[in-house]
Amino acid sequence: xxxxxxxxxxxxxxxxxxxxxxxxxxxxxxxxxxxxxxxxxxxxxxxxxxxxxxxxxxxxxxxxxxxxxxxxxxxxxxxxxxxxxxxxxxxxxxxxxxxxxxxxxxxxxxxxxxxxxxxxxxxxxxxxxxxxxxxxxxxxxxxxxxxxxxxxxxxxxxxxxxxxxxxxxxxxxxxxxxxxxxxxxxxxxxxxxxxxxxxxxxxxxxxxxxxxxxxxxxxxxxxxxxxxxxxxxxxxxxxxxxxxxxxxxxxxxxxxxxxxxxxxxxxxxxxxxxxxxxxxxxxxxxxxxxxxxxxxxxxxxxxxxxxxxxxxxxxxxxxxxxxxxxxxxxxxxxxxxxxxxxxxxxxxxxxxxxxxxxxxxxxxxxxxxxxxxxxxxxxxxxxxxxxxxxxxxxxxxxxxxxxxxxxxxxxxxxxxxxxxxxxxxxxxxxxxxxxxxxxxxxxxxxxxxxxxxxxxxxxxxxxxxxxxxxx
Length: 471
Fold this sequence. Notes:
Blueprint lengths: L6 H33 L2 H13 L8 H10 L21 H12 L11 H4 L23 H10 L8 E8 L4 E6 L4 E7 L4 E6 L5 E6 L4 E6 L5 E6 L4 E6 L5 E6 L5 E6 L4 E7 L6 E4 L5 E6 L4 E6 L4 E7 L4 E8 L5 E8 L4 E6 L4 E7 L17 E3 L5 E6 L4 E6 L5 E6 L4 E6 L5 E6 L4 E6 L4 E7 L4 E9 L1
Antiparallel strand pairs: 1-2, 1-28, 2-3, 4-5, 5-6, 6-7, 8-9, 9-10, 10-11, 12-13, 13-14, 14-15, 16-17, 17-18, 18-19, 20-21, 21-22, 22-23, 24-25, 25-26, 26-27
Helix pairs in contact: 2-4, 2-6
């Protein structure tokens, strides 16, 4: 005869049995979680890991939606519960991040990527992962976000400051972001068709990107890579600069008749437009923040605008189209010389900032094939952060040439990829990043040895590269 027990009795017995058998396991898990929290870096977690939970990946819901919003309303049960953001917030507070850190640390075995549920659970089974109710967030172990999580699990720590190299893929619809510490792509900003100019707010929280396909200035949250707002402009934009106080963005318009559009960064609205007498290709800001320097291909001029008065104050005319430029600064940040790439010239012109005159024209080492190169053989030029060298791209030579400053003596050259386009530097000047529009890569060059360290695949026809120094 079967004995019948009240359902409550069975439940109590089951719970008691579970507690008796699992208490040591639970205790071990608590110790493991505590150990993980002690060995994992909170600064790296907040700066690099948390933004992944808010990132929208194509075709997938954000981690935050399932592990924050849906868990809160009881729709889903999970030990991975993120703090709920307030309606007006785009990121967690310090206290909320600390709580997130404690929860996420329990999903990690420090130093062991393949034993950490944080990495293996959302990874595609084809790449060695597990089934995940939130979909296959990472298709492979080479996914930039997966690699960032792996860095954290392996114990990488956040420094006091860091750089990011932003790459505008001019024939694509995205911007790649490279971490120079690892030379890995760590973020891809999607949905910006034909990006061109890139600039940053002084605190590093915002990224400003011009979108040629729709005549827009796009405002992006730096941590999440999400678009905050778009600002309509008066024509097709090329490059941009952000004023030193972060209050305004100057945008060069290439669409005739050409102008400098000015966007207020508080209201995020276009507030005025300065007529420039010709379409603008590239614009730059002097180190002291007092002047915008703009160039025109069609009208063959270099024109300087006073930032305070928002009026042009002087210009220099050339017989060739004006392309990219670099500004040499004095000790106080004022402009000293402007180095100008010109169409059909394998080299650069030198303009004195005080006299407003061209004072020299420097030709790169002779090569008979260069004279046959169409357009701009040199497109990309930059002064190193310490002000002691000038770096000049050469498309026909597939190289970047280096000149000492202030004497402009040739030091040497380093190899790059095909159709090298733009140059940027890490803040310490030890690495140089050179976009290669011909093979969809970015060359990383060691500034001391003049050797190419690695070539990083990015998007379609990378052009503008810019460095963000994160405070």
